[in-house]
Amino acid sequence: MENMRLESYDEVAEILRNCDNVTILTHKSPDGDCIGAGMGLCLYLRSVGKHANVVNSDGFPDRYDFLIGDYQPEEFKEQFVISVDISDTTLLGDELECYKDKIDLCIDHHGSNRFFARKTYVDPSASAACLIIFELLEHMGAEITLPMATNLYTGLATDTGCFKFQNTTPEAHIAAAKMFEMGVDFEHINRRMFDIKSRSRILAEQRLIGDMRYFEDGQIGFLTVTNQNIADFQIDRSELDAFAQIPLTVEGVRFGYTLKQQEDKPQLFKVSLRTTDADAAAICGEFGGGGHLRAAGCTIEGKPREVMAKLLETTRKYL
Amino acid sequence: MENMRLESYDEVAEILRNCDNVTILTHKSPDGDCIGAGMGLCLYLRSVGKHANVVNSDGFPDRYDFLIGDYQPEEFKEQFVISVDISDTTLLGDELECYKDKIDLCIDHHGSNRFFARKTYVDPSASAACLIIFELLEHMGAEITLPMATNLYTGLATDTGCFKFQNTTPEAHIAAAKMFEMGVDFEHINRRMFDIKSRSRILAEQRLIGDMRYFEDGQIGFLTVTNQNIADFQIDRSELDAFAQIPLTVEGVRFGYTLKQQEDKPQLFKVSLRTTDADAAAICGEFGGGGHLRAAGCTIEGKPREVMAKLLETTRKYL
C-alpha cells in the first residue's frame, strides 16, 4: 500500500478517534517541540481513555522535567505508532530505528518531510509541531487541560524563538493567546527555556563567542564546540541546542554556523546553520542535511578547520 | 478644574477626534514603547488630516531610525498636548519640563501613574502603551497603516520582552497576530531590538557579567556599569536599557539589579531592578522610584558599593 498524504484535520482526527494502544515517537536529541507535541498528544489520548506512551532514543533531558511531570509509561500491547516532529527516519536514533517501517501516522511541520509513514499530515507553514497538535485538538473539540497546554505552549515558544523567528505566524500568536487563557505559566516556561543560564554556562558562552571565526567581512560566523570544550566548561549536552542561535546575534553575520563535535564519533561535527535571509535548508541539503528556510542542519566529517573550509566554499555561492 | 480619569476608549476617542495641532510627549531616555506609541499616534493623527509632532528631551537614538522613517516635524501653533507612556512628570526630562502643567491628555500603562494631566487614560493591565494605542485605533475604526503597525508592534515587543515577560497578556498576542496580518516585518524588528549586538557590545557584556556580584546564596545579583566601563568598551548609552535584563538570566538570581552611573552626575546611579517573584515597584518605591511589579527603577547617590549596600539592606526584607 502506498504511503498517503492527509490533507485535513478531519482526516487526522478520524484516525486519532479510532486508534488505541499508541506509541508516540519523538526525535533523537529531543527538544521542546517534539517533547511538547508528544506529551501533549499522549495526555490527550489518555484523557479520552486510550493507552499511550511517548518514547525517544535519548531519554528526556532534565530541563524538560516540568513538561514530563508525573508522566509514567503504561503497559499495553502496542497497536498504533505515531511520530511527531520527525521529518526523516534517520532522526529516530538508534533505540527507535526498529520503528522505521512501522509508523502508522506522522504529524510534522517540516517542508523536508520524506513521507516515511503510512499516513502523513505535514504543514510546513505551521510554526511548530505543537501548533498542529493544538489546532487539531481544538478542531476535535477536545478539552485541553493545563498540562496539555503547557506542553504545547513550550514547543510553540521553542520553535519560534518565543515569537521572534521568521516562522512565527498570526496563528502562533492566536494559539498562544488561547493557551494564556488556559492558565499556562508562560513566564516561568520562557525564563526556563530561554533566559536562565548557570554561571558555568555563561562563562562557557563567553569563551566560545570570544573564539568565534568570521569570514567574508563578518557575514559568515563560526562557533565551534569541541568535546574538550564540553569537558572543560562542564556544559550539559542538552543545552547545546541553544548555542545554535548565538552566531546570528553578532552584528553583520548573515550565515551563523555552530559546529558541535559528536561525543561518540569525534571525527564528526553536527552543523547547525541559522540565516538572516539565505536558504539554510538548501545549503545544508548540499551536505545531505535539511531543515527549515532559516534554520537547518547537517553532519560533516573532518577536523574543525576542514569542516569550516567545506562549509565556506558552499556558503560563498549563497552570499 | 480637577484632573480627570478617563474610563473608556470611547472617551479617549472623542478627545482624539476633536483635537488638532498636537504635540505628543515621550519620556526621557526614550525606549521602543514610548517611541512606538508616540510615532504610531502621530502617524494616525496626520493620516486623518491633523497636525502632530512627537518630541522628547533626549532625541531619538539611532537604533530606532527604522521607526522614525521619513518623519519630519511639522510647523504649527500647538493647541493640544498628549503624553504617552509617561507615569510622572519627572520623566519628561529637562527639555520638556516646561510642559509639566500643560498636558491635556495622558495615555499610559503604569500602575504608578500620578495623574498629572488634565485627563488620563491609564490601564495597568496593558502590556505596553503601544497596545493601548493599537486597541484605541482599532476601536475608532482607524485605518492602521504598515508604518503605524510597525511602530506599535515594536513597542509591544519591547515592553513584553518579545512576549516573554509576566506582563504579556492574551490581548498582546492577539494584537501581534493582527499586526502580522498587516505585514509587520517582525523578524527584522526582533533581530534588531533583541538579538543583534556589535562585537564590542558582546565583549562588554562578557566582562560586566564576569564582574557581577552576588549575595544571599546568589539570590541577589548586581551588575554595575560605570562611566569608565562605557568609555572603555565604547558602549552606546542607548543600548544600556537592555543590560537591565542580564542579571536575572543568571540561574538562581531572584533580584537582578543593574546600576548605571549617570553621565552628567557621576555621584548618582540609575538602578534597574528585575524580579522573578518579588514586588520590584515596592522595593524601588522605598528609594523614591517606581515601575511595574517585576520591573522597576530608582536613582541612588553614592559609590557603587554604597548603593549596593543600601539596596541589599532593603532587598533582604523581600527575600
Secondary-structure class of chain A: alpha/beta
- Helical fraction of chain A equals 25-40%
Order of helices and strands of chain A: EHEHEHEHEEHHHHHEEHEEHEEH
Looking across the biggest beta sheet of chain A, what order are the strands in? 1-6-5-4-2-3
Count of discrete alpha- or pi-helical segments spanning 4 or more residues of chain A: 12
Query: In whole angstroms, how far apart are the ends of chain A?
Result: 44 Å
State the total count of DSSP E strands of chain A. Answer: 12
Q: What spatial form of chain A do the alpha-carbon principal axes imply?
A: globular
For this structure, the quaternary state is homodimer
Radius of gyration of chain A, whole Å = 20 Å
Low-confidence stretches of chain A: none
Question: Roughly what fraction of the amino acids of chain A lie in strands?
Answer: 15-25%
What is the residue-averaged pLDDT of chain A? 94
Mind describing the biggest β-sheet of chain A? 6 strands, parallel
Quick one: which chains have the greatest interface? A-B, 37 and 37 residues
